């Protein structure tokens, strides 16, 4: 995720649980009718919902297949940022030589350079450019003249290692730099008016933002279910649905909560009323529990800041305040000794022991499946695990009225356990249709038994098999085995990742522990 720099102050004026009022057809991929005009010319009508499968790199990185100006490639799915970029074949960084299908250098680069910095200290830079065409897997939701950063230098190795050439951002415009950099290149650094900002978003915002802005989706939203393919006995099928909920999921089964709004540096144009805007996908949380016991509140943040979390597909772990994370480490690991910066390497516990970290949101509990809570403490390790939770130091935590206000980040462990709907509402006039998020837990009742089963199986196999997976993003959806409250479940797989024909199931596919990929 990326940290923005232009927040004035925050406000928490929205509260309570809201149910989206914007109606959506129960989202399905529908084949586009072929319109016939006089003569035999065929015309394609715009499609307003798309449902695509996700690639999976070691359950730490999730990707999507896209078409960039005619070439198929894959991008990392990131709800924690807002700038679209792709590495071009003119990239000089050593990371770019890994044989990826880099996109061709666009012929009409602008003279404006863009630099995005991520929470892990990595960055990507290049010149802004426009691709004449952009679409999602299988030519879905085509766009023309999509602005992106043609990256020629990056050290975001974790992205390239997962065989993605860049990032597909799903954040709000105000969390990005693209529109602001392009606007200030022509307007200077004066604070933009809302009119200027909205005009700029129409042409330079990221793909899904543009679709929401022009009202071309069934519903101004997308939803994400992440698969669990390393420690796997079934589980969600990885699906991104743009424009609605996945087919089969009933919206009344989700718990909806408002997205935090901020005062930002946009000058209302004459006739516009000052509004507050969503910046990251940030949800209020009531409390955090470990194994059914509430965790103490952090003493590193002011009690006046309402507790909240961002929901970030681009983060391989869950993050929280250092003191609370120390508490989690101490509770799961008998030998752990607290320190001011929590040391994950020392927070070891038996992989066989199920632990449930749960978040109370919008009045409901959302547990992380015990299988998603563990990480191997070393390569090929199935005895000792560490929690998939990392601490935010005091300097990363919010201060009242300054910058973003979240103190937790719900990364992939959360999104493997919870189907999440991201409802943008009206991006330019949030008060007309408020942004919100909907959650549906897909953790089975016997998740703890499933953890114990899979780990003991792996231990019997002498340290587990060493199957490590990078599954490329599919261009279609695989057939689901069944559904869980309407959420498509992945078919069971054997130890080699093939779809199981018998009762053989995946055991522990050892991920390379502490893969560079955790920190985005
Ligand atoms: C946000 O701006 C509104 C006026 O538009 C103001 O009333 C409110 O106090 C501001 N909130 C914060 C946290 O500064
Ligand atoms: C949810 O379903 C209800 C009725 O089934 C409908 O009125 C409402 O618009 C739906 N909301 C969304 C976001 O799909
Ligand atoms: C590049 O070409 C597209 C049309 O293909 C055009 O819309 C865009 O403005 C051009 N970009 C630049 C930077 O000249
Ligand atoms: C990545 O590159 C940026 C810019 O050159 C540099 O500031 C940063 O320290 C680098 N990060 C890492 C993790 O190498
Ligand atoms: C690479 O990107 C930088 C901006 O980050 C730009 O100044 C430079 O001209 C670019 N080089 C090429 C070959 O595109
Ligand atoms: C958002 O609300 C404004 C003000 O009511 C309206 O003009 C605009 O069309 C809305 N945007 C969309 C995409 O519906
Ligand atoms: C914060 O301080 C209180 C009072 O000393 C303490 O009970 C609590 O455990 C502390 N919170 C954390 C997360 O350590
Ligand atoms: C978990 O529950 C499922 C569905 O009820 C069942 O098929 C499976 O055998 C159970 N597994 C364990 C290890 O309890």
From TrEMBL:
Keywords, ordered alphabetically: Aspartyl protease, Hydrolase, Protease, Signal
UniProt cross-references to Gene3D superfamilies, sorted A to Z: Acid Proteases
SUPFAM superfamilies associated with the record: Acid proteases
UniProt record, GO biological process: proteolysis
Pfam family membership, one: Asp
Molecular-function GO terms, alphabetical: aspartic-type endopeptidase activity
Signal peptide (residue range): 1-16
Domain Peptidase A1: start-end pairs: 62-435
Cross-referenced CDD domains: pepsin_like
Keyword Acetylation: no
Record flagged with keyword Signal: yes
PROSITE patterns membership: ASP_PROTEASE, PEPTIDASE_A1
UniProt cross-references to PANTHER family, sorted A to Z: BETA-SITE APP-CLEAVING ENZYME, ISOFORM A-RELATED
Stated family: Belongs to the peptidase A1 family.
UniProt name for this protein: Peptidase A1 domain-containing protein
Organism this protein belongs to: Mycena chlorophos
Lineage, opening ranks: Eukaryota, Fungi, Dikarya, Basidiomycota, Agaricomycotina
């Amino acid at each position: 995720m990326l940290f923005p720099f232009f927040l004035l102050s925050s406000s928490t004026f929205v509260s309570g649980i809201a149910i989206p009022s914007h109606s959506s057809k129960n989202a399905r991929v529908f084949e586009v009718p072929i319109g016939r005009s006089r003569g035999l010319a065929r015309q394609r009508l715009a499609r307003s919902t798309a449902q695509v499968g996700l690639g999976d790199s070691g359950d730490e990185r999730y990707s999507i297949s896209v078409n960039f100006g005619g070439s198929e490639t894959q991008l990392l799915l990131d709800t924690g940022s807002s700038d679209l970029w792709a590495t071009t074949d003119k990239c000089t960084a050593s990371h770019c030589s890994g044989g990826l299908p880099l996109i061709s250098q666009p012929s009409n680069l602008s003279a404006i350079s863009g630099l995005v910095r991520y929470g892990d200290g990595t960055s990507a830079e290049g010149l802004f450019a426009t691709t004449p065409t952009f679409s999602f897997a299988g030519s879905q939701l085509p766009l023309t003249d999509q602005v992106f950063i043609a990256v020629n230098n990056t050290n975001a190795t974790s992205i390239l290692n997962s065989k993605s050439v860049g990032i597909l951002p799903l954040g709000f415009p105000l969390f990005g730099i693209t529109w602001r950099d392009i606007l200030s290149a022509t307007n200077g650094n004066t604070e933009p008016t809302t009119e200027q900002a909205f005009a700029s978003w129409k042409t330079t915002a990221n793909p899904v933002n543009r679709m929401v802005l022009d009202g071309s989706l069934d519903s101004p939203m997308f939803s994400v279910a992440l698969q669990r393919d390393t420690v796997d006995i079934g589980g969600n099928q990885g699906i991104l649905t743009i424009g609605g909920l996945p087919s089969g999921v009933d919206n009344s089964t989700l718990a909806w909560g408002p997205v935090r709004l901020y005062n930002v540096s946009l000058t209302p144009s004459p006739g516009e009323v000052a509004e507050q805007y969503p910046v990251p996908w940030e949800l209020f949380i009531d409390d955090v529990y470990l194994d059914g016991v509430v965790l103490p509140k952090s003493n590193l943040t002011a009690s006046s800041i309402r507790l909240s979390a961002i929901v970030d597909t681009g983060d391989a772990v869950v993050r929280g305040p250092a003191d609370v994370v120390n508490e989690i480490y101490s509770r799961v690991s008998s030998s752990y000794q607290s320190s001011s910066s929590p040391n994950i390497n020392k927070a070891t516990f038996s992989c066989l022991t199920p632990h449930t970290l749960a978040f109370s949101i919008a009045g409901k509990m959302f547990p992380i499946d015990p299988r998603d809570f563990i990480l191997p403490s070393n390569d090929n390790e199935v005895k000792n695990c560490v929690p998939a939770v990392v601490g935010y130091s005091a300097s990363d935590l919010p201060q009242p009225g300054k910058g973003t206000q979240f103190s937790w980040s719900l990364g992939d462990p959360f999104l493997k356990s919870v189907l999440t709907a991201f409802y943008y509402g009206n991006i330019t006039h949030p008060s007309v249709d408020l942004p919100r998020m909907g959650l549906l837990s897909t953790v089975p009742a016997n998740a703890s038994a499933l953890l114990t089963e899979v780990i003991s199986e792996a231990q019997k196999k002498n340290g587990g098999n060493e199957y490590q997976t990078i599954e490329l993003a599919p261009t279609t959806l695989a057939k689901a085995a069944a559904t869980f409250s309407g959420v498509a479940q992945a078919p069971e797989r054997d130890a080699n990742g093939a779809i199981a024909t018998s009762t053989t199931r995946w055991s522990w596919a050892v991920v390379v522990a502490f893969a560079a990929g955790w920190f985005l």
